């Protein structure tokens, strides 16, 4: 494992522990040359998923692209980096459970929106604005109206209630009265 800072190939493992609900192993490492510390994850290698892009191109699923989009949408929302990683893990697990090894980029975007709706309305709208290519203020208003309708029909959980997106307790979702 190369050091991400100095590319030296030798390092030592300081700590190992189970991560992501037992789906991977988290290792804290220290470079033997520059002595900087970094984290690596070891996870099961799944059968590759092919993503069908809107322009017709095909490429392998890249979880880092999904994570980058989620991180941008979640900036200054209080959602932790660990929770964002967990969202990507959940999305990847959903895709791995499918029979088809090919998925459209549109389906991935909708999965991200489904998960973000349970986490933060702000993150949801930010992601939707890029993913759905909002062009006018009307696009934002329509999305906000949809969220309001969903909230009115109790589809958005209040803190402590069950999140319908994950069928588990809501993740720090609080809606002000």
From TrEMBL:
Belongs to the NrdR family. PANTHER family: TRANSCRIPTIONAL REPRESSOR NRDR (PTHR30455:SF2). The keyword ATP-binding applies. InterPro entries: ATP-cone_dom, NrdR-like_N, RNR_NrdR-like. GO terms for molecular function: ATP binding; DNA binding; zinc ion binding. Negatively regulates transcription of bacterial ribonucleotide reductase nrd genes and operons by binding to NrdR-boxes. A zinc finger (unnamed) spans 3-34. Binds 1 zinc ion. The lineage of its organism: Bacteria, Bacillati, Cyanobacteriota, Cyanophyceae, Chroococcidiopsidales. The gene is nrdR. Residues 49-139 form the ATP-cone domain. This is Transcriptional repressor NrdR. It comes from Chroococcidiopsis thermalis (strain PCC 7203). Keywords: ATP-binding, DNA-binding, Metal-binding, Nucleotide-binding, Repressor, Transcription, Transcription regulation, Zinc, Zinc-finger. HAMAP family: NrdR. GO terms for biological process: negative regulation of DNA-templated transcription. Its cofactor is Zn(2+). It holds the Pfam family ATP-cone. The keyword Protein transport does not apply.
């Amino acid at each position: 494992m190369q050091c991400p800072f100095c590319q030296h190939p030798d390092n030592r493992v300081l700590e190992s522990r189970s991560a992501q609900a037992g789906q991977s192993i988290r290792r804290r490492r220290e470079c033997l040359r520059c002595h900087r510390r970094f984290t690596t994850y070891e996870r099961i290698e799944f059968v590759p998923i092919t993503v069908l892009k809107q322009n017709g191109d095909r490429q392998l699923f890249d979880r880092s692209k999904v994570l980058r989009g989620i991180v941008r949408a979640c900036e200054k929302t209080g959602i932790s980096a660990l929770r964002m990683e967990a969202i990507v893990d959940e999305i990847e697990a959903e895709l791995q459970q499918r029979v088809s090894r090919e998925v459209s980029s549109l389906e991935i975007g909708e999965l991200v929106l489904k998960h973000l709706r349970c986490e933060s309305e702000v993150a949801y709208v930010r992601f939707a604005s890029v993913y759905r290519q909002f062009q006018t203020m009307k696009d934002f208003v329509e999305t906000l109206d949809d969220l309001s309708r969903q909230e009115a029909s109790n589809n958005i959980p209040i803190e402590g209630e069950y999140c319908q997106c994950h069928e588990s307790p809501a993740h720090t979702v609080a809606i002000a009265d």
